[in-house]
Amino acid sequence: LTLEELKTGAWNAELVVLSGCETALGESAHGEGMVGFARAFLRGGARGVVASLWQVSDESTADLMHAFYASILDGNPPREALRNAKMQWITSREGRGQPYYWAPFIYIGE
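The chain above was modelled as a monomer; its predicted structure follows.
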């Protein structure tokens, strides 16, 4: 699957979650701005993307994503669900509330 295929696909997805490392990053393309997976999914029809800005810890990502999906199941929109998951991580992790663990994930979209 290439970036070009992603951009031209008919994803019609409410949300795409890219929980790997640095999935929100891209390359600077002359006249196009940043081009990467997140933007390709949005151009291909996804209404929102959750992606990461830097290398992530497997353990903290699993915990954060679990809280994120639980919040989605509670009826929260993705942007709010991600915020809720981050707040839960910050308040429930003694000594591990540092941004390294929870801040790399961002929501891009509507």
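The mean pLDDT is 82.
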